[in-house]
Amino acid sequence: MILQLKPGTSEQLAHELAERFSAFCVFDGGHFLLVTSSSQHQADPETEPYVERIQTFTDDMQLSSRSWQKPTREVIVGNSHFGNGKTTVVMAGPCSVESEHQIREISGMLVEQGLGTLRAGAFKPRTSPYTFQGLGKKGLELLLKMKQEFGLNIITEVRDSTHIEEVIEAADIVQIGAKAMYDQGILRRCGKSDKAVMIKRGFGSTLQELVQAAEFVMSAGNLRVLLCERGIRTFETKTRFTLDLCGVAWLKEKCNLPVILDPSHAMGYAYGVPDLTRACTAMGVDGLLIEVHPDPANALSDASQQLTPQQFRDLVASLQPIAQAVGRKIS
Amino acid sequence: MILQLKPGTSEQLAHELAERFSAFCVFDGGHFLLVTSSSQHQADPETEPYVERIQTFTDDMQLSSRSWQKPTREVIVGNSHFGNGKTTVVMAGPCSVESEHQIREISGMLVEQGLGTLRAGAFKPRTSPYTFQGLGKKGLELLLKMKQEFGLNIITEVRDSTHIEEVIEAADIVQIGAKAMYDQGILRRCGKSDKAVMIKRGFGSTLQELVQAAEFVMSAGNLRVLLCERGIRTFETKTRFTLDLCGVAWLKEKCNLPVILDPSHAMGYAYGVPDLTRACTAMGVDGLLIEVHPDPANALSDASQQLTPQQFRDLVASLQPIAQAVGRKIS
Amino acid sequence: MILQLKPGTSEQLAHELAERFSAFCVFDGGHFLLVTSSSQHQADPETEPYVERIQTFTDDMQLSSRSWQKPTREVIVGNSHFGNGKTTVVMAGPCSVESEHQIREISGMLVEQGLGTLRAGAFKPRTSPYTFQGLGKKGLELLLKMKQEFGLNIITEVRDSTHIEEVIEAADIVQIGAKAMYDQGILRRCGKSDKAVMIKRGFGSTLQELVQAAEFVMSAGNLRVLLCERGIRTFETKTRFTLDLCGVAWLKEKCNLPVILDPSHAMGYAYGVPDLTRACTAMGVDGLLIEVHPDPANALSDASQQLTPQQFRDLVASLQPIAQAVGRKIS
Amino acid sequence: MILQLKPGTSEQLAHELAERFSAFCVFDGGHFLLVTSSSQHQADPETEPYVERIQTFTDDMQLSSRSWQKPTREVIVGNSHFGNGKTTVVMAGPCSVESEHQIREISGMLVEQGLGTLRAGAFKPRTSPYTFQGLGKKGLELLLKMKQEFGLNIITEVRDSTHIEEVIEAADIVQIGAKAMYDQGILRRCGKSDKAVMIKRGFGSTLQELVQAAEFVMSAGNLRVLLCERGIRTFETKTRFTLDLCGVAWLKEKCNLPVILDPSHAMGYAYGVPDLTRACTAMGVDGLLIEVHPDPANALSDASQQLTPQQFRDLVASLQPIAQAVGRKIS
């Protein structure tokens, strides 16, 4: 249940009321809101003097639902606009930061393509302890260097709560990976930050759980949340995962958060990435995450799914007319 | 293993050899072929005098694999060309034939849109015995009437082997439904027919099984096979199924059969069908199956997922520029 | 909705009423029943004079539901009792009939173990056309020979509608395989037979669909239906399928049909079959299907999952005390 | 690859070698081991003087594989023995610690049943921010109180890295929940602890990933790891999850860690828990986790799946003869 407080309610009063009625206090669109469980369907009569709008829900998709706020919640990061309905932001880069040389080559290529966001992992959430785990803090430093040198926005992943502060500090968009989607230590900390946050859907997670992960961040005060579909795990093993575009259609219909797609991780093989990226673009989504590496065959992680710079250039060129056909442009 | 017989081998000799070496005999691209299990990796030395090309395989995707024949196997049905790389054929119509009035209204609308193929079910493979099971033979007669009246190609489904003759007789494209994908009675009978055959992937079936179903038809002699992805069953329940576009990318890469997509059944809800259809079109596929009904709310089956005629017209109009962006046109 | 007609209603009147009210007419437990869709919640007032009990349902699990008939529907086949709550019937044999020698060896071993039902396939529903497809009619003849020689009940599979008559003729229990679960040609024909019918759950099929498949047979008049869980397809690939014992718990709670388990197909590897079979026995189920072959390594199908005769003997010996612990005995 | 150092190698030298050859250093069964990626198949020739046994692997299941160490790695916690092949340890309690009264009632009941391990969550990994999140530190204190009062071992869950120290401090067995299975912050910290660690398989996680999570803990030095199967997410929605007993058979065959089963979470409904628990017991597993609550209907979390004390007593009584039938006893 969301209770929208009357205009002019002070922040102090809003927080007092939230505490009194065991609610989260969120400042959203010029109003203070009290947010409680969706299982609550009746407001305490004592709230009446303060409240100007009440809405009940059938599940815990509340702040993120179009039934509460119809328009998409626009998230602006530097020059990138997510959710304005007019752009599809292409974020690209290698799976992992491996070296300064590597990351600079990709950064230059992005700028050359007119793209403004660099993606690359410093803390890699590998499933085996015996494989490359990322450069860690050193990787973050290299990303910051690229930011300064090329003016790029940085999106990078937090693996677990132990290095959340460093990632929030370094990133323009904090990526919560598929394997960390339920991590409340991360979600709540991001809720206290003013950085944009992109939550990747766990490969075994329902859409409902994805939006509820967003509600953790939003109820803690940070409404700058992006949702990312990156493929779910199914019985089919010819491809790495199964990109759930039906789920994207549902998100676009029911949820007011911008939607990002990651066809690289879904497919797992470079040969399918261009076709899938074009499909995602034609869906009219707010952003794309594409893996590109100067030398995919020798990448330290996810070698099979990263595009070469030339494949990437060809792909971006092919996206523009599709974006235009659905009223958007690539940026 | 496929053994391609030398040019000029007579049909009689080809069949004799097939019997002698326990192989299927298929006439493909001007050659007689002997096809055996992929577990066979060595040809009988006695075949040597007759054979000009031998290829072994790692699995039972043989005639349908691009490693055997690189170019897509084009299937022409009336004016519709599947697999020429230049067109995406839109096949549309209601889930079930319900009445002459209903099916005529849709047929007229297709012609008006410049589309040439009517889809509608007469034998419905429902999961419950207590729901509408289709008009059966009466439904086929109505479809034939539309064919004569409007010059439309007809694609309609065979539910089980008991009415396979009637469907082969009536249809231009015999649809083997998702629930009948393993039905060897149907597959083998279609292999003896010269009608085009579209095999829908079972919602619990792997891509490997789908191409192997095609191999049943092809090894029996009919190479005019289309494959259709219509959504697989996953843990996500917000949508009816999960459209597997990663799988489509795999099919396009590995398999030489034309690929058709059915976003209506995958999504299960009309609201998502336009976005998904645009995504499928941007993939560069050979055909689309779209459900449209004069009055979806009162449809006797699949009410929630059928478009209204107006929604369908708007959708088709929006597809043309996307098809063009990937070098195709809607037809 | 089920309408139970008053005692003494004649068969002729029952069928007339069924036709008049578009219902299935079923004779169940001494009463004629009219069965309609569960979406119908109000009986036609004109039925009132004939009806003594009306029950509505929330889904199309009707005749098979415990809410309609609480006790399990016992199915007796020769000396085997399925569903009496006191026995777990072990049905065993090779995946496929391969030769008279092979099938006789297994038959002798069953008799020696005090077991009364032989399972073996004559028509194999293989996914590839290039592998062993079963001996067909010849296989049925060998099974009948074993029946005569050893007094065993025969359970064997129908692959598609084209040979349903032969299988009904030969089998004591007609097995509808996982890949044929939706085949209405088979289901309806079995509904007109008086043979016991075992329906295997499709590996991509929900429990709801499984019981609805049973409703096809039951609404056509044959109430002698067994349900078999044999593993569903999931993302896990270390084992062939995932045996769904949670689903079995649901079936036991909600459905009045006897439940059979097939751990051999679920596991796909002989090493896990004994443990799983013991688990199934401890669930208190009505029957078990176990694959055993005189020489598994050289089996023509499913080589990896069949037990040796010695492994099978050891397994059966280990089941007895577990069955006893849950109030049953192996038979 | 695992390199077992010669007897008498000093700890210091072992660590020096590990650093020099980029390996993990683990003390296992009286030997120092150097563990590297399984992709390494050739030891550095310079290691030769120090090494007495080398084993290569095909995947990153190394320390936990039976091919490295055949016997199960026994884990002893107080009086409870996991993995000795003779006992099945029943760990029971409510989903969440709710109050002192509640947790004391259950503790008393456990002691009365002769059981030695209390399970209950203090930090609950809920998917929605708007539901009960557990008592946190207060919950841990109540668990410690029960430990002192009743002499029970405590198993409780860590939700994310932010409170890992408190849980390690309080628990006898640290439970890493299904949603935290990939959390390297937790896994590595547990690897430095001497507490037993139970890793629950994520509901979307493969068996391979589960054992690799264990390898994170083991390679960091802690070999006291238990694996828990608690149901995976599939397309079937009649039950909460699908308990993967085929997977358990695989774990028992391939992996040397004790296996625990949690039928309560898999089923999601109390009615199925007794049958499933009996099935698990007949599998011959090392432990069971069962949810029991003084008043399930009013539980603050997982109300539907918790047994009443009386149901629990009846269940435990029924397990003893089954355990005995497979050569074990309940403890």
Order of strands across the biggest sheet of chain A?
Answer: 7-8-9-10-11-12-13-14
Estimate the global geometry of chain A from the Cα principal axes: globular
Major β-sheet profile of chain A: 8 strands, parallel, barrel
CATH architecture of the largest domain in chain A: Alpha-Beta Barrel
Biggest chain-to-chain interface with counts: A-B, 46 and 45 residues
Report the count of strand segments of chain A: 15
Description:
Chain A is α/β, with parallel strands linked by helices. Chain A has two domains: 2-55; 75-330, TIM Barrel (Alpha-Beta Barrel), CATH 3.20.20.70. Chain A has helices at 11-20, 100-112, 137-150, 164-170, 184-191, 207-219, 245-254, 263-267, 273-282, 309-325; strands spanning 2-5, 24-28, 31-35, 51-55, 75-77, 80-82, 87-93, 117-119, 153-158, 173-176, 196-200, 225-229, 259-261, 287-291, 329-330. In chain A, the strands form three sheets. In chain A, strands 7-8-9-10-11-12-13-14 form an eight-stranded parallel β-barrel, surrounded by seven helices. In chain A, strands 2-3-1-4 form a four-stranded antiparallel beta sheet, covered by helices on one side. In chain A, strand 7, helix 2 and strand 8 (117-119) form a beta-alpha-beta unit. Chain A is globular, with a radius of gyration of 20 Å. Chain A starts with a strand and ends with a strand. Chains in contact: A-B, A-C, A-D, B-C, B-D, C-D. At the A-B interface, helix 7, helix 9 and helix 10 of A face helix 7, helix 9 and helix 10 of B.
